[in-house]
Each structure stands twice: as structure tokens, then as C-alpha cells.
Amino acid sequence: MEASPQAVEVEGVAVSFGETRALDGVDLTVGTGTVQGLLGPNGAGKTTLVRVLATLLRPDAGCARVFGYDVLRDATRVRALIGLAGQFAAVDGTLTGRENLEMVGRLYRLSRSEARSRATDALDRLGLADAGDRVVRGYSGGMRRRLDLGASLVGRPRLLILDEPTTGLDPQSRNDVWSFIRELVADGTTVLLTTQYLDEADNLADHIVVIDHGKVIANGTPRELKARMGADVLELHVEDVAALESTAELLRGIGTGEPSVDVGDRRITLPVHQGPVDLMSAVRRLDESGVVPSDLSLRRPSLDDVFLALTGRGTTPEDAEDAEANGARQGRRRAKKGAV
Amino acid sequence: MTTIDQSAPIALPPVRLPVSAIFTDSFVIAKRNLLFIIRTPQLLVFSTIQPVMFVLLFRFVFGGAINVPTESYASYLLPGVFVQTVVFGSTTAAVALASDLKAGIIDRFRSLPMARSAVLAGRTAADAVRNVFVISLMILVGYAVDFRFQGGVLSALGAMGIALLFGYAWSWFFALVGLLVRDPETAQVAGFVPLFPLVFASSIFVSTATMPSWLQTFAENQPVTRVTNAVRGLALGTATTSDVVIALLWIGGMLLVFAPLATWRYRKG
């Protein structure tokens, strides 16, 4: 064991499911006490990496260590050091909130009384004190998710692994989870968090790794990543597909990067630094050429834009292994197209 | 929750779990599963009504037309129904484990520093406790339709013990099924595929002597018949040592095969 090991060290980890390469040689280092964001679309391999670190999945190649302990050779030690909250609230519906937490506490090898007192602490801390003695079946989705988070904490993990902790939560619950994660970080817990949302990674993470098709495609602080994308994004939609390329040409030179064309969505996006100024020059050029976009907007960069900037394509559903989980996203896109 | 002192050196967690972990962890899991059974009484009620219906159906509808080597059909039927009940009941292990897998609960357990076999040991132990309850109820039903234990208390306890052990062995088989199919609905249907031929082409409801000879060979040598004969023999005080030994060998064999296989499948994830 090294003198002061990193919280997480991943070297060349590869995992295949049949023909699909879920992870294709991933390297990652997470410093103790930091928050690492793992950003990527559905099917990028985020959950697969989480499962390797949580000792749930054997990598085909490479190695992964948690606080210096190998996830295969020292799996029991690793398990004693981590807390895991997955994408689905893995809590037992027929037990009460308190019983769920006490059970997990006992399985972390705590004494009965210690498990009981930690369960009470976690319930208080997660705002579930009043609901603690009710059966979980009657909990709302947000409450279940908070309880699941609580279950990952009763072992007082040194590394907390959160797989898309806010996916599917309403904005209020999402904010609650965010502030809760911040409290933990203030206490010094190392957090590894996967997310599909750039703003979530931006809000919580000290470092972000962007993965796609099982590979790390970008690595840096939120500030560094955003600098690659520009401060804002100029987005316009054009009715006529044939006019997309020529319109993109018109905009070349404005902003901080190349205009990207998304043919499917008939959309052009452009990273810009001085939003209003760049918007005005774009409008002038379009007007001079008689091009009238069906929609024109200036907005904050999204994960789509990160991907467009990094890979030249959006986080389109056909790239995802898990098309089902993308249903909501596709629905949104269709709705948007309908409006245009 | 108190603040964790992250500047302190990481306390070295144990490399190996204490041997006692398998017992304490299995107990924790069994308690969870028993709470599920207690808090879902409708499931217990409906899964108990089914064997009661079988008793009534065979005792009063078909019973008159069935010739058996014992003095009354009720005393022939009831020990068979004990076996049928625990065997059918063991399919719940498959459904429950597949549900836990689907809900991510198994992932949580596998990420905890707990004994690897405790989830399955706790599951099967809870099912055995449920079977004690269900068999006791079937004995009451049996006494209402003129079934009587005829071999004394020890012999009666032996009959119950063998039926319970057989149910326990099947629970391990169905634990394996649940871990393999990973879907509760499929697990529910898959369970009955091996059970129907084994339960109905057996000595549970009828004497195998009435079957065509090709079927008789199968029916007389398969585990459900062998165990039923031992349970019936003990219940009616006619058991031979070889009846009991053969039944115990089948049960032991099933446990030796399916418990390691299910544990291996669980570890593999």
C-alpha cells in the first residue's frame, strides 16, 4: 500500500458485454476529499465504471484501486470503505425507512445499537425523521431516493459512489440532494458522481471526466471544460435542410469556434464568448443574406454542446446502448421539433 | 451524524470477514424476508388457499375414484400434500430474488462488506420458517378431513422434518433459477416447468402402480416420489429405514448441487 493513496485509481479498465465494449481502456484518478464528476450520455459506460469500482463487476482488463486497495483482490476492504447509491432507489418497500437503514448498518458489521443510532442520524439529516417509521412503499420517489442515499451513508464511507443521483427527481428534490452532497463533501468524504447533466457536474464537481463509447474524451475542471465550449451557445434552427450548410458558412468567424451542424434537428450551434455582441453580428449577417431562421437563441452550454464540441456530434439516442432510458429525451426533442 | 475525521489514517478494515459473519448476516437477511412475509399477508393467505383447495378437491371430488393402498384416501393424500405444498412454495425464492435483482437490492448487498452466501442463506431460511407455518396449517386442515398421524409423535415430527428439508433443498434450486432468469414474471412461470411433471407424475395423489410402465419407471425413481413415500411412511407409521435414507440422500444431493451453484451465480453477479 502506498503512503497516501488516491481515493480512486483506475488504469486501463476495459469491460465488454458480448460485442459491446462498455469500457475501452479508461484511466481515472480521484484525489482524496474531492468530488469527481463522471459525465456522459446514456450508454457511455458511466454505470459500468461505477460497477467496477463498487466491486460488482470484474473488468476484463486493467486494474482499479480504492484507497490503494484492489477491487478484486481486496474486495472486502473496498466494500467496507465505499457507499453506493445506484440509479434506482434500492430500498425495500416492505420495511420502514428506519428498518432499511438499520439492516444496511448491520451488514456493514455495526453493532445493533450503533446501527440504530446511525439510522436515526441519517433519517434526521435527510429530512425523513417523521417518515422513518413508515413503510417505504408509501414514500414518494424523492423520499425513496433520499433514503437510498441514507443507506449508502450508514457505513460512513470514505468514498461515496453516486450513480445519477438526481435523474428523474423534481427540481426541489434535486436541490435537496445537491446541498446534501455538499455537506458530505464539507465533512471530507470523497465523492464520485455520474450524471448526464452538465449543470450538476458544474455545481458539485471539482473535476470532470467526460466519457463516451467507453473512452475518456475530456478531463478537467468545470472551468476548463467550459472554456473549450465558450461562455454561451448561439443556437439557430432552419426550416430548409438544404440551407443548413450555407447558413453555417455565413456564421463562420463569429464566436470562439466552428459552427456545428445537426442535420436531424436542422440546427446550427456556435460557441460564443460575448453573447449579445456575437448574437447581433450573427443577426446582421443572416439579414444581409436574407436568411430567416425558424428559431434563434442564446443560451448556456449544455451537455449536448460539450459533446458537439468534443466529438462533432450530439448525444443522440442512437448512440446509446440504453435507448429505453432515453425515451424522455427523445420525447422532448420531438416536442421541440413539433413546435418548429 | 458526526463529522468524519478524514485526516486520520484510514482504519484498516479486515481482509477477511469473521466466520460468524455468515450467521449474523444470514439472520439479518432472514429477518428482512420474514418481515416481508408478515407484512404481505395477502400473499401468504392466497398461497395457503391453493394447497387447501388441492386437499378438498382430491379428498372429495377425485378421491372416491382413486384406489390407494392405504385404508383411507385422506391418510394417503395428506402426506403427499405436505410435500406438494413445500415444493410449490419454494418457487417464491426465485420470484423474490429476481425482484431483488431487478430493484437493485442485490447490487446493494453485493457492495456491502457482508458474507457472500448470506443473501441466499437468509432467503432459504426465511422460506423454511414460512413452510413450518404452512405445514402446521395443512395438518389442521388434514385433521378436519379425517387424516390422522398413525406412527406416534416422533414419527410425525420426522415426516414434517423431511418435508421441510425437501422444501429447503428446492428453495436453493429456485434461488438459482431466480438468479439466472433475473425477471420476476419469468421466474414465476419458469418455476412450474420442472415442477409439474415431478409433482403430478409422482406418488403424491395416486399410487404409481396405476401408471403405464414407461411412466412408472420415471415416477417411482424421481425425488418427489421418494420423499413423498418417506413422509407418508413416517406419517402412517409404515416407513422403512431405506425409505427415509433414500429421501435424505435425494435432499442431501440436491443441496450439494444447488447451494454451491446458486452461491456461485450470486458471487458472479
Fill in the keyword field for this structure.
heterodimer, A: 340 residues, alpha/beta, Rossmann fold, Alpha-Beta Plaits, 2 domains, six-stranded mixed beta sheet, four-stranded antiparallel beta sheet, elongated, disordered C terminus, B: 269 residues, mainly alpha, 75% helix, disordered N terminus
Characterise the protein shown here.
- The complex is a heterodimer of chains A (340) and B (269).
- Chain A contains twelve helices and 14 strands.
- Chain A is an alpha/beta fold and 340 residues long.
- Chain A has two domains: 218 residues, Rossmann fold, CATH 3.40.50.300; 110 residues, Alpha-Beta Plaits (2-Layer Sandwich), CATH 3.30.70.100.
- A six-stranded mixed sheet of chain A has the order 6-7-8-3-9-10, with helices on both faces. A four-stranded antiparallel sheet of chain A has the order 2-1-4-5, with helices on one face.
- In chain A, strand 9 and strand 10 form a beta hairpin.
- In chain A, helix 3 crosses helix 4.
- The longest helix of chain A is centred in the middle third of the chain and has 16 residues.
- Chain A is elongated.
- Chain A starts with 7 loop residues before the first strand and ends with a helix.
- By secondary structure, chain B is mainly alpha-helical.
- Chain B has one domain.
- Helix content of chain B is 75%, strand content 0%.
- Chain B is built from eleven helices and no strands.
- In chain B, helix 7 crosses helix 8.
- The two termini of chain B are 32 Å apart.
